[in-house]
Structures are given as C-alpha cells and as structure tokens.
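Journal club prep — side note

Before the paper discussion, L.F. wants everyone to see what a predicted structure for a comparable chain looks like in token form. Sequence:
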Amino acid sequence: MSIFFKKSIIPLYGVLILASACSIAQTSSSDKASEVTGNFAHTESMNSACQSSTKYFRNLINSNNLSEQEKSVRSELSALESYAWVDNSTGVKEELESSPTNLVFTKSIEAAAMANSVAALKVLLDSKTHLQEANLNAGLLTSAQCGNILAVKSLVASGARPNATNEEGLDAVMVSLVSHHFDVTQTLLSAGYDSCAIKTKDGKSIKLLAESVGALEISQGLPDCN
C-alpha cells in the first residue's frame, strides 16, 4: 500500500500522510500559499488529512468488521506500524526486538508522529539501534504539519534537525506556518532554526512566508536576511 505524501500535499522523505485507501481528496494550493511556496495544499486540507488518516488507521486496526478492501490494507501494515498508530507502547517495544527494517521503522515513526502517539513515539525514539537522522527528520515534518507539538519536541530532543528539508525543499517551519500551527513554529525557532538558511521555492524568505499566512508576531521577530 502506498500512503506516501502526494506531490501537491507535502512530499517528505517518502513519508506517509495520505492513505490512498482513505480516498482523501487531493486539493490544490490556496492562492495565497501558492504565491509564497508554489507547492502547499490548503491549510484546512492538510489539517484534515492528518485527522482523517489517524481516524482511518485506528479504526482499521481496531475494528473486526472490515470490507475486503480494508482487510487488504490492514494486511499490508506491519505490526510495528500498527502499534504506533494506536499508541501501544508495549507492542512497539516487543516488535522492536524483532529487528524491523529501516523502512518499517521510519513508517512507524511517521505514524506515531501523525497520530500524536506520544508513548509509542518515546519507545521508538529510545531505540538507538534503529534510529537515524533521516527518520527523525521525516517524523518532524509530519508532526509539524499535523500540529502535534509534543511529538515535535520529542523528535527535536532526539536529534531531528529543524532546518532539514525534503526533496521539494520544504522544512518543518514552512509546514507549520502554512498549517497555522504557530506554536510549533515558535518551538522550532527556539530549537536553533536558522530562518536565513533557506527560502521557499520561488525565493521568498521565511519572514515573508510568516507574514503572508498571518503569523505577524513571528514575522516581526525574524531577521531581514540578505
């Protein structure tokens, strides 16, 4: 099952956010956001995608009354990823003993980050054997988009880089701003984010992006970058 970011939503490092099985409609960028980023989906669409995906997978994993299609989708979920979606930290700990592949581990971090599965995420982040910067950064972008500030703080504390970008040049601050999760933005700025180190796809500064989405207090606190 492919549940990777659609290109117009926010493609991360192969991060899951929209499940094709959910039939979540893909929407175009708002005019204001596209002027600045050229590649962001509408704010409400992004937030709704996080909530819908979490609800979908939790129901999928917990329900015994599934359609054939849903059964097929569930069969493709690893046990580790399933436990991450439903915040079963005990199950996560047991599955980590079976040495999951890096792909399964990354998907599980992203699932926990999206679902705000704080207990499961803690167990995953404590697993030094499997933890890599790439899956930390992927989880950070996911949690920043969904506004899950506890997950954001945990990932940053474990070594995720606020300035890390995906293949489209998007980072966690950009995602949090366009999603209107300004508390997450402030957390990332306080964690050493360098707003002068990156610009949006069309050359706009983070300061201008913050202003364009209504985060005026954040914008005023950012430096003017040459």
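L.F.'s comment for the group: The radius of gyration is 17 Å. Keep this in mind when we get to the figures.
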